[in-house]
Amino acid sequence: MPAEAKVSAKVNKPAKVEARAAAPVSPPLTERQEARRRRILHASAQLASRGGFDAVQMREVAESSQVALGTLYRYFPSKIHLLVATMQDQLEHMHGTLRKKPPQGETAAERVAETLMRAFRALQREPHLADAMVRALTFADRSVSPEVDQVSRQTTAIILDAMGQENPTPEQLSAVRVIEHTWHSALITWLSGRASIAQVKIDIETVCRLIDLTAPAAP
Amino acid sequence: MPAEAKVSAKVNKPAKVEARAAAPVSPPLTERQEARRRRILHASAQLASRGGFDAVQMREVAESSQVALGTLYRYFPSKIHLLVATMQDQLEHMHGTLRKKPPQGETAAERVAETLMRAFRALQREPHLADAMVRALTFADRSVSPEVDQVSRQTTAIILDAMGQENPTPEQLSAVRVIEHTWHSALITWLSGRASIAQVKIDIETVCRLIDLTAPAAP
DNA sequence: CGCTAATCTAGAACAAGTTTCAGACTTGAT
DNA sequence: ATCAAGTCTGAAACTTGTTCTAGATTAGCG
Questions:
Q1: What does the domain layout of chain B look like in residue ranges?
Q2: Which residues of A touch B138 (CB under 8 A)?
Q3: Is the CB of residue B169 less than 8 Å away from at least one CB of chain A?
C-alpha cells in the first residue's frame, strides 16, 4: 500500500520517527530513509560548524544532503526542529564520550562541575555549532517541546551519571534542574560574548555547590 | 547643520540613542523623536501582549506607531533590538513597583525568592508579552550585547536590592549570576510549556539557597 | 508482474525581517 | 529668511523560512 515505509498518516512527520538509536520502534524507517535522515543531520552540523545558526539555511541543508526542500521539511518540520535534532545527535556522542572517562572529583559537586567543564571544552572546539544548537534550543516554542524535553532528559542523565547517584532525592533533582538552567543560560552568555570562559567556569562551580547542599548522608 | 537632533554620523542608529531615562546624555533626542520612540515601544508592547513574539511584526509596529518602516529600523536596528528595548522599558516599571513594597522575608534568600516570584506573577498576567521579551533576550546575538547587558544589570540591581546588601562579596555576586541564569532559563521552560508554575517556584527557591550559602556574617 | 498508496523531487509561491532609494520635511546655524 | 545636513516617508526589492503543487519514484502486496 504505502511506499518507502508507512510512516503513518498524512500529518505524520518523521520527526516523531526520530526514534532515538535506543528505541527505533514507533515508525520504522526504510534504509534509504535512515540514510537521508543521517545526510540531513550531517549537513546541518557541518553548516552549523561553519557559520552558526544563520549559516544553517534550509535550502542549503537540502542541497548538501541531496534531498528536496519539501523532503527536508517532512523529516524536520522547522529549522528549529532540525537543529534540536542535531543537538540530540551530538549529545549522544558526548554522553558516550563522557561515559568512557568518568570524572575524578571527590565530591559529587566536583564531579558534576568537572563533567560540565569537559562538555564546555568540547563546545569551545566548535563554537559555531554550539551557537546554532543552543540558540535553537532556547528559541524553541511549544511545537518543539517533546524534542527539547528529550534533550533535557539526556542532559539530566549526564549530570546524574556524574553524580553517581542511583536514586536521587527530590531535592537533588531540583538541584540538577537548577544546574541545567545555569548551564544553558551560561552558555548563552558565553556565546553572545557577554561572559568569558572563566566566568562560565565560575558560574558552573558556584551552582554545583547546590549538590553538596542537598546531598546528605546516604541511607 | 543636522536636523531633528544630531544623532551623529551616518552609521548612527538611535539605538545607542536609547539613553535610558536615567542618562539621556549621549545623543539628545528631539521631543518629536522621543515621542516616536515611545510610540514605537508602546506599539511593540501592545502587539506582544496579544500574540507574543510572532505577533510583533515590524510592518505592524511601524503602522501602529505611525512611523515609516525605515524609521522604525533607524530607531531599532532589528526586531530583537526592539523587543530587548521593550524589556528594558518594562523592567524599569517593574523595578519601580518592586521598590515600593520591599519583600518581607527574614533571610536574604527568602527576600530574593519573594521578589522573583512577585516578578513572575507579574509576567503571568501578560504571558504573551513575557514570551516576546524573553525569547528575544535569549535569542539575541552579539550585535545586541550592550542592550542585553543593560537588562542584565537591571536584573542584578533588582536582586541586590532584595538582598539588601550594600557591598556584596564576589561570592555573592556569583550566586546572583547563577540566580539570574536560573531565572531566565526557568522562564523559558515555563513559556514553552515544559515546566509548570509550581516547578518554576521550586527552582527559584532552590537556587536562592545559594545566597545563604555564600552570605557569611557581616564584617 | 502489476497496483496502489505514500514518498520524493523540482520549482513556484508566500510571509515576514531587512535593506534600499528617491523625494519631502526638519532642524539649527548663518 | 535661507540653506546645508540630517531625518522621515512610502514603496519596492531582497533574503530566507515555510508552504504548496504536479508529476516522477518507490515500497510492499496480491
A1: 14-75, 86-214
A2: 138-139, 185, 188
A3: no
Q: What band does A29 get if pLDDT is binned at 50, 70 and 90?
A: confident
Which of A142, A175, A192 is facing B148, going by the closest CB pair? A192
Span CA (B22) to C1' (C28), Å = 26
If you measure CA to C1', which residue is closest to nucleotide D18?
A: A78
**Identity at B18, one-letter amino acid code:** E
Q: Candidates 3.40.30.10, 2.40.50.140, 3.90.1570.10, 1.10.357.10; correct CATH number of B86-214? A: 1.10.357.10
Q: To which residue does cell 558552573 refer?
A: A204
pLDDT surpasses 60 at B82: yes
What does the pLDDT look like over B161-213, one tens digit per residue? 999 978 899 999 999 999 999 999 999 999 999 999 999 999 999 999 999 87
Handedness of CA A72, A74, A76, A80 (dihedral sign): positive
Please report the DSSP string for A80-123 in residue order: HHHHHHHHHHHHHHHHHHHHHS----SSHHHHHHHHHHHHHHHH
Average pLDDT, chain B: 88
The answer to whether B185 and B176 have CB atoms below 8 angstroms apart is no
Write down the CATH number for the domain with range B14-75.
Answer: 1.10.10.60
Q: Which residues contact B87 (CB under 8 A, 6 or more apart)?
A: B133, B134, B136, B137, B151
More confident residue, A32 or B49: B49
- The answer to whether some atom of strand D lies closer than 7 Å to the beta carbon of A56 is yes
Q: What percent of chain A has pLDDT over 70?
A: 85
What is the nearest CA distance from A125 to chain B, expressed in angstroms? 19
- Residue B219: pLDDT band (50, 70, 90) is very low
pLDDT digits (tens, 9 = 90+) for B23-47: 344 667 788 899 999 999 999 999 9
CATH superfamily of A80-214: Tetracycline Repressor, domain 2 (1.10.357.10)
For residue A149, the chain B residues in CB contact (below 8 A) are: 194
Residue from the list A144, A148, A203 with its beta carbon closest to the beta carbon of B174: A203
